[in-house]
């Protein structure tokens, strides 16, 4: 059984080594996490990555950056409220110097990074990378050079696992605390496991690549997180709050964006959110507001407030089961407003996620990412595994890659080569990916 003293253990380390850093006398470990993320390059890149809608000229539609900031804000509220409950129930936490603001900071920091591993063009970008290795000839040629578990990483690319990889990279300047890194990991398993337990939410996707199993194993040992099977672990309990913060924000805010863009009628939004708000909903006060934007803003704020309260209540009810690993569901699936959230999800799929702008963005994402992977992976393969086919064009293409691709052939690992390539491509912004695609395909020239 997990215990909160160990789960909230102070300290940070490079999980690839065994060195811990010296605590900061002015900020808690977890406040430092938040600040490091805010100032990191991978986080800044989220400003030019699609959330749902293609990046528009108008500024009211959310990007990955604004979405992540909002999820973090909701996460902080969830964490602080849950933290007050935990401090009352476990007074020894206060004796260890842990406050409710520390727990709020953990959830806020983990939530801030929850999309940091997502590639350009939203979730369609994940599918594009996976499909390249599944179906494209230039992707298939790598299969015989990889182990089974490595190939599974390639054919089922996962932004959560890419995020875990990025958070471990010291070059990003992050090196987060133990608790924040574990709270980030909603799916503590690799891509290839013996059997997935479909009843467990934590096994729905995977959270780290095959070469990082030892790193997560060490993290779990440090925090006392038990294994639930071979290469699978229970969730850190705060990961449930990180997940809930994301679920709350995309449910409500995607609906708001859809209404703002005219894809969903205001009347439908009012009806749905009023059912969440309940007795606090005041139709007369809402009608007194002049603009649609004002109405959406007050409805959003009140709905999120109610969902936060319901989620914290669910966390309190199931906290002990989380510690034993017996609870493994999304908190937003068991709160009183869950049926309304399901209706919002169905409406969003119908009216928003399958709308013309979104479908066009997804189609473009498939084309751009497939094209980039084709050009770069073919050049890499020719250089290291088929020298007779290595052309002048390939040489020019490879000069566009970062320095880490200059590997000695004697120590070359095909998996590492592809991991570095995917790091490069998944880290691109939407606009940069599109611009580079046009250039390597000869559609436009530099400066044109």
TrEMBL record:
The keyword Hydrolase applies. The keyword Hydrolase applies. InterPro entries: dGTP_triP_hydro_central_sf (IPR023293), dGTP_triphosphohydrolase_C (IPR027432), dGTPase (IPR006261), dGTPase-like (IPR050135), HD/PDEase_dom (IPR003607), HD_domain (IPR006674), PHydrolase_assoc_dom (IPR026875). Residues 64-251 form the HD domain. Gene3D superfamilies: eoxyguanosinetriphosphate triphosphohydrolase domain-like (1.10.3550.10), Hypothetical protein af1432 (1.10.3210.10), putative deoxyguanosinetriphosphate triphosphohydrolase like domain (1.10.3410.10). Keywords: Hydrolase. Pfam families: HD (PF01966), HD_assoc (PF13286). This is DNTP triphosphohydrolase. It comes from Echinicola arenosa.
């Amino acid at each position: 059984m997990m215990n909160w003293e160990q789960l909230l253990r102070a300290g940070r380390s490079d999980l690839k080594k065994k060195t811990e850093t010296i605590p900061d006398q002015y900020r808690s470990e977890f406040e430092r996490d938040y600040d490091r993320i805010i100032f990191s390059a991978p986080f800044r890149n989220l400003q030019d990555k699609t959330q749902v809608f293609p990046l528009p000229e108008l500024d009211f539609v959310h990007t990955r950056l604004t979405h992540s900031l909002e999820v973090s804000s909701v996460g902080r509220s969830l964490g602080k409220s849950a933290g007050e409950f935990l401090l009352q129930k476990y007074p020894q936490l206060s004796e260890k110097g842990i406050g409710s603001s520390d727990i709020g900071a953990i959830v806020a920091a983990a939530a801030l990074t929850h999309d940091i591993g997502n590639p350009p063009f939203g979730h369609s970008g994940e599918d594009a990378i996976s499909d390249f290795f599944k179906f494209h000839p230039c992707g298939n040629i790598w299969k015989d050079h990889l182990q089974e578990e490595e190939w599974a990483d390639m054919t089922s690319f996962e932004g959560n696992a890419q995020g875990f990889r990025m958070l471990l990279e010291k070059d990003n300047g992050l090196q987060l605390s133990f608790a924040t890194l574990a709270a980030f990991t909603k799916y503590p398993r690799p891509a290839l496991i013996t059997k997935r337990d479909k009843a467990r939410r934590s096994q729905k996707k995977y959270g780290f690549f095959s070469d990082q199993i030892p790193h997560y194993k060490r993290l779990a040992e440090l925090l006392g997180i038990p294994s639930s099977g071979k290469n699978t672990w229970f969730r850190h309990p705060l990961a449930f709050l990180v997940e809930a913060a994301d679920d709350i924000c995309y449910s409500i805010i995607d609906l708001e964006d859809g209404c703002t863009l005219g894809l969903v009628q205001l009347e439908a939004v009012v009806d749905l959110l009023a059912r969440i708000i309940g007795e606090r909903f005041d139709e007369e006060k809402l009608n007194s507001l002049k603009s649609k934007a004002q109405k959406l803003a007050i409805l959003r704020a009140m709905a999120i407030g109610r969902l936060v309260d319901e989620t914290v209540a669910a966390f309190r009810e199931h906290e002990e089961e989380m510690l034993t690993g017996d609870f493994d569901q999304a908190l937003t699936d068991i709160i009183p407003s869950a049926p309304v959230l399901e209706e919002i999800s169905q409406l969003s799929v119908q009216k928003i996620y399958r709308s013309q702008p979104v479908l066009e963005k997804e189609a473009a994402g498939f084309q751009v990412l497939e094209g980039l992977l084709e050009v770069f992976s073919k050049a890499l393969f020719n250089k290291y595994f088929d020298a007779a086919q290595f052309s002048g064009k390939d040489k020019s293409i490879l000069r566009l890659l970062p320095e880490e691709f200059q590997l000695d052939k004697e120590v070359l690992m095909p998996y590492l080569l592809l991991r570095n390539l995917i790091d490069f491509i998944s880290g691109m912004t939407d606009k940069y990916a599109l611009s580079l695609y046009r250039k390597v395909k000869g559609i436009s020239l530099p400066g044109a």
